[in-house]
Prior knowledge:
Layout: E1 9-14, H1 18-23, H2 25-34, E2 39-45, E3 60-64, H3 70-80, E4 84-89, H4 94-103, E5 104-111, H5 118-125, E6 126-130, H6 137-148, E7 173-177, H7 189-201, E8 205-209, H8 214-224, E9 232-233, H9 240-248, E10 252-256, H10 259-267, E11 271-274, H11 280-283, E12 301-304, E13 307-310, H12 333-336, H13 340-357
Parallel strand pairs: 1-2, 1-4, 2-3, 4-5, 5-6, 7-8, 7-10, 8-9, 10-11, 11-13
Antiparallel strand pairs: 12-13
Helix pairs in contact: 2-6
Amino acid sequence: MKALGERPRILVITMRRLGDVLLMTPLVRALKRGFPGSCVDALVFRGTEGMLEGNRDLDRVIALAQRPSLAEMTALLARIWRHYDLAVATHAGDRPTFLAWAAGRQRLGLLPEADSGAWWKRRVLGDVVRASSDNHRVIELLRLADFLGIPRQDGIVCPAGAISPAAALPGAYAVLHANPMFRIRRWTDEGWRALAAALADRGLTVVATGGPDPAEKDYLDRIWSAVEPPVVRVDGKLGWPDLVALLRGAAVYVGPDTSVTHLAAGAGAPTVALYGPASPSLMGPWPIGGLETPWARAGTIQHRSNVWVVQNPLPCMPCDKLGCDGHLNSRSQCLDELPVQRVLAAVDQALALRRAAA
């Protein structure tokens, strides 16, 4: 790769879900600090750009529909065509690879050996870093910084901005986020209710977060409507900076394998993450200070810095499949049988560490 020169324009392309966008922020920071005076932009799917709100390492965020019209794609190509000195594709998909080729005078990307389209992607990217199936996602992305010869930055950068009064709560509180994107990652209703009651017994106000989708609200109504004492419902009421502020003030956060759990870990909250079919070794929460010791694929309670990963290690787990029935709305036996006592054991460890640090 040729030297980028002074004040290079760099585009980082991450066209996946919210958690993926959040986990690429250490790479963005490495690029911004590694090339002083650079202009760093991000290209993401529309609906995920909230994870980059207030990110001072970025000069601009470009959002594209997941299924753009021909007119939208044509307008994007006209806007980015050879506009950047370097375009970085953080995933090996066809679309990010093509867009990196269109945008960058020089291109760099992650490319797994097993990719059936590797031949043309190698050709259009120019420079590639071989992806490893053994590394955490953040470490894989930071290998791109290594290739460029710039220092790594291992901290997650959370959304920032003005905070509304709704994000402030008096006293000690716990945050519970019950609903993941997919049913395969969901714990039981009974487990969440028992956990909320146990946290209330420990003197904590229980705050429930969630999104504004009507189907998600119905699910959360079913879980929380009969809980005593009542939980504080903030689902659908907080913007991303508000949610970060809420998480930072929590005595403990508990959630499944979802973007808000990644956000809690990155915000520094004592985070208890409930993992089922998916292994945390590749996409587990990224704790403050990074991962000196990688997450094991399976365990009972694993602890790194401000994060605890809780699993129910059945012989088949982690299967890295779509639950027991092979689809996103499937049951997952490992989560259906995860006992609340194990979750509470991790919660009590997190609370004890929080009290010791206070």
